[in-house]
Structures are given as C-alpha cells and as structure tokens.
Design a protein that fits this description.
By secondary structure, this protein is mainly beta. The chain has two domains: 23-139, Rieske [2Fe-2S] iron-sulphur domain (Rieske Iron-sulfur Protein); 148-345, Naphthalene 1,2-dioxygenase Alpha Subunit, Chain A, domain 1 (Alpha-Beta Complex). The protein is built from six helices and 19 strands. It has helices at residues 145-148, 167-170, 179-183, 273-286, 296-301, 317-324, and strands spanning 23-29, 38-40, 47-51, 58-62, 76-78, 81-83, 90-91, 97-99, 114-115, 117-120, 123-128, 156-162, 187-196, 199-208, 211-220, 225-232, 239-251, 254-263, 342-345. An eight-stranded antiparallel β-sheet has the order 12-18-17-16-15-14-13-19. It has a four-stranded antiparallel β-sheet with strand order 2-3-4-9, with no helix packed on it. The longest helix is centred in the C-terminal third of the chain and has 14 residues, at 273-286. The radius of gyration is 22 Å and the shape is globular. It binds FE2/S2 (inorganic) cluster and fe (ii) ion (FE2). Fe (ii) ion binds next to α3.
Length: 348
C-alpha cells in the first residue's frame, strides 16, 4: 500500500432523524380491518384500529388506556367506541371517554389521541404529524383510477419488521445502480426521477428475463408508494401488475415494511377471491429473490450514511434525500423550491 498517494480512509457520517415523518402512512388493505380491534405498534407507541359497528368507518386511537394502562386492542368494539378490557371504560372514535360503568362522573381529563384516517384505493391510511396538526391538502392521497378498473385481484399485503430507520427504504427510488445486483435487472434503458411537492416518481424501463419492462413508481409523501408496471414479451399478452412499497416507523431505529401486490385475475378465477389471493401469494413467493423483498438483506445490516461517496453512474440520491427531508420538518419550514417540478434524467 502506498500511503503517500492514497487518501485517508473515508469517514462515514450517519445520523438518525430527530422526529417521525409527517404524512399519510398506508397501514394495509381495507379488508384487513374489522370491528375486531387490531393492535398497531407504530411511532414508538401502541395504537388500536377498529371499524365502528354502525358506520364501518375505520378509527385509530392511542391504545394505552389512561385509566390504568391496559391496551385497548385487547378490548372490544361497541357501536363506534372501543371498550377497555380492564375496567370497561368506553372510548369514542373522537378519543373522549363516553362511559364508565361504575362511575357517577367521567373525569374531564379522560381523553386519548384519535388519529386521522383515510380510505382510498382499497387501502387505509393513517396521518402522522409530530406537530399534532390535521392532514394538509397538499399531501392528499389521490384516487387511482387503475385500482378501480375491473379485473384486478384484491391487494395482497405482506409485512416484515426491519431493524433500521425507515428512511433507508426511500433511497431505492433514486438508486439506479442497485437494480442489477439486487433485483437482477440486466439492462436499464431509461431511468429518470421527477420530484414535485410531496410527490416523487421513478420512471424506469429495462430488459428483464420476462421481456421489456416499463415501470412507474410514485411516493405520495413519506409512507405510501404505488408502482405500476407492464412487461411486454413477443408472442405473449402484456403482463400488467401493481405493487405497493410502504413503511410505517415502529421506532426511530425500526419500521414495518409493507409490500402490496395486485395482479390481473386469470381466466377461470373470476369471483373466487380465495383462489385469486392464493395465486398472488404464489407469484410473490416465486419472485421473492428479485422483488422488493431482495432489499431486506441489505437493509438489515447496512448503516445510515449521510455523506455517501456517489459516482457519475449513480441516480439522483442527494436530490431524493432533499425531497424526503421536507417530511422531517414542520410544514412552515418546507422550502418553497420543492413545489417546483424537477426532472432528473439519469438514463446515461
Ligand atoms: S385500564 Fe382501561 S378501564 Fe381501567
Ligand atoms: Fe430495491
């Protein structure tokens, strides 16, 4: 080793964000939530999600009962309220205690946080803002016309716990150079990213072993990405599919990775939801080594790197990170310049 000309070993800097991102987080498919309370361990705490018996509307509340700390997800639903399993205090969808079976007076302090929810695209979303503000229209989740088209299977959602900050997953959008080694894509013929406000889209075309693939993936805020893809192979019908790549922070150093899949219903399976779900699950299992799950092995052991050494063949990683940073500051600190549409073409 020639120490006279070699530079000093590079020092990696890594830091965690000081707060959870602001935005809508997709927490699953609509059919996964019912009047049975479901425990969600997100944002460093425990939440309870349930549908009201009268309205069918999804409600999400902080799960720890401020009476004596039981978890409301262990309780049951009555009307639009959730009943604590410990002493049966009843909590309304607005988070206000509306009944204590053995008390003459409900303590005025008896209120827990009720989270904003939204349903669209057969999915459910949860709003998180560390400043406690309601959802903003700039970050609204659009209805996807393609999801409402006839002939698609239901969403099939898989969840994996990942021990790393959720920001690691976002880098994928700009990380052109990882698609060949990690996902086995032999040749990329087009790669560009477009950033505009809270949206960030990756356009990618490439030759895969199944034919020419055209893909478009858009993050709407920090916690929901929808991906539409068509693969064209000579002599075969085009293969269209949709997927979701999502994250919900569980702590600053871990997140729940949610991947969703929707396929065209094969002939003969029309109306048979169980068969369709089994079919999608089989395709997910077959593709697990090259699909989005292939990133898991990397995320598991990688470090956070704030100062990556990037080369000319890399995608616009720095630009993507600047876009994502808007979700880690209060709304009034988001740079105005992020509203402009910016196109980064990294095809060559
Ligand atoms: S702990 Fe919930 S009612 Fe007592
Ligand atoms: Fe990836």
């Amino acid at each position: 080793m020639n120490s006279q000309i070699a530079p000093a070993p590079y020092i990696i800097h890594g830091s965690l964000p000081d707060r959870y991102p602001r935005g809508w987080f997709c927490i699953g498919a609509g059919y996964e939530f019912s009047t049975e309370p479901k425990m969600l361990n997100y944002f460093g705490t425990s939440l309870v999600a349930y549908r009201g018996e009268d309205t069918g509307k999804l409600h999400v509340l902080d799960a720890f009962c401020p009476h004596m700390g039981a978890n409301l997800a262990d309780g049951c639903v009555k009307g639009e309220s959730v009943i604590c399993p410990f002493h049966e205090w009843s909590w309304g969808a607005d988070g206000v205690c509306n009944d204590i079976p053995y008390a003459k007076k409900i303590p005025v302090k008896a209120r827990i946080t009720s989270w904003y929810t939204h349903e669209a695209n057969q999915l459910v979303y949860l709003w998180n803002d560390p400043d406690g503000n309601p959802p903003i229209k700039e970050q609204a989740i659009p209805d996807e016309a393609i999801v409402a088209e006839e002939g698609w299977t239901p969403w099939v959602i898989r969840r994996v716990h990942v021990e790393n900050n959720c920001r690691e997953l976002i880098d994928n959008m700009a990380d052109k150079a990882h698609f060949s080694p990690v996902h086995g894509l032999p040749e990329i013929t087009h790669f560009s990213n477009v950033s505009e406000g809270h949206k960030y889209t990756q356009f990618m075309n490439g030759h895969s072993e199944n034919g020419l693939m055209k893909s478009e993936a858009t993050y709407h805020g920090p916690g929901y990405m929808i991906h539409k893809s068509t693969t064209v192979a000579e002599g075969e019908p085009d293969r269209r599919f949709m997927s979701l790549v999502m994250n919900v922070p569980t702590s600053m150093e871990s997140f729940e990775f949610l991947a969703g899949f929707k396929e065209r219903v094969p002939e003969g399976m029309e109306g048979d939801i169980d068969a369709q779900t089994a079919y999608v699950n089989e395709l997910i299992d077959d593709g697990v080594e090259s699909s989005v799950f292939a990133d898991l092995a990397i995320w598991k052991n990688k470090c956070t790197i704030d100062n990556p050494i990037l080369c000319d063949g890399d995608g616009p990683v720095t630009k993507l990170r600047q876009w994502y940073a808007q979700f880690l500051v209060p709304v009034d600190q988001v740079p105005e310049s992020l509203q402009e549409k910016r196109i980064y073409d990294k095809t060559s």
